[in-house]
Design a protein that fits this description.
Layout lengths: L3 H11 L7 E5 L16 E5 L2 E6 L2 E6 L5 E6 L10 E5 L3 E6 L2 E6 L19 H9 L6 H4 L11 H10 L13 H23 L23 E6 L4 E5 L15 H7 L6
Antiparallel strand pairs: 1-6, 2-3, 3-4, 4-8, 5-7, 6-7, 9-10
Helix pairs in contact: 1-5, 4-5
């Protein structure tokens, strides 16, 4: 699933279409895309994992799901399969989106999206994130980092890499983290988001993965735990049971959690 930095790069790529008028619109999504005909694209925006095509009075929100993609072409470019959303502009160019979900967002986008929650936004607010996290002390950190209302744009890569950077086990409870460590986790999430962005632009992202889809811890050289479905969100985890500290609330201690944490189940 494309994470926030990848969507931001796509937004930058599609900015060239700002001001263009849609001639035809269609696709396989369950929306009447004819609404876009003869409409001028006012802006291409993003928020977390959402790509937002803004028109007068409404916007089209696209989510690239697990394998979503966008292809830029023209009338002579053959389509690859049946696109979920296809937009043809007056200048002859065409945008085909595959494997995406689509939704109308009515009215002003700023009324729907909180920039302070987007880890790549100039409006990002670390203190607001800290306050939200402290309201759910029982939540596992592996689930908290994937909460888009707190960390818009964070996906599984950022989650795994950030938790390794701050040496926190993914099955730790939020309430068990001391304030300085929680603050460091929040700060590193934004820092890693911009590292991800820079590496993605240079096409070297995978070279910098320390634990995600890796087999050996770069610190202790032990085998990494590779768990297929961890936490309530049931996402893949790559972590080091030796180097990443396991923080629990004494009143919530669950022996099965610790057993699961050290199970090294294959992902």
């Amino acid at each position: 699933m494309p994470e926030g930095p990848s969507i931001l790069i796509l937004r930058e790529t599609l900015a060239r279409f700002t001001g263009a008028v849609v001639r035809e619109a269609g696709g396989r999504v369950a929306l009447d895309l004819t609404r876009l005909r003869h409409r001028r694209l006012l802006a291409v925006r993003s928020w977390g994992k959402h790509l937002l095509l803004e028109f007068d009075g409404f916007s089209l929100r696209l989510h690239l799901l697990l394998l979503g993609s966008c292809r830029i072409g023209d009338a002579t470019t053959p389509s690859t399969g049946a696109p979920a959303v296809s937009l043809q502009f007056d200048d002859g160019t065409r945008l085909d989106f595959h494997s995406v979900s689509a939704k109308w967002v009515e009215g002003n986008l700023d009324a729907h999206y909180d920039g302070s929650a987007d880890i790549l936004s100039p409006a990002w607010d670390a203190e607001a994130a800290h306050g939200k996290l402290r309201t759910t002390p029982h939540t596992l950190v592996c689930d908290a980092l994937l909460d888009q209302a707190i960390f818009a744009g964070v996906g599984n890569i950022i989650k795994n890499e950030v938790l390794f950077r701050v040496r926190i086990h993914p099955l730790s409870r939020l309430g068990a983290l001391p304030d300085p460590l929680l603050a460091r986790m929040i700060d590193e999430t934004r820092i890693y988001g911009f590292d991800f962005l820079a590496w993605k632009r240079q096409n070297v992202l995978k070279r910098h993965w320390q634990v995600h889809e890796q087999r050996t811890c770069p610190l202790c050289h032990r085998a990494l735990a590779r768990i297929a479905q961890l936490g309530k969100r049931r996402r893949r985890s790559f972590h080091c049971d030796h180097c990443q500290a396991f923080h629990v609330l004494p009143t919530l201690f669950d022996a099965s959690l610790r057993k699961h944490a050290s199970g090294n189940a294959p992902a």
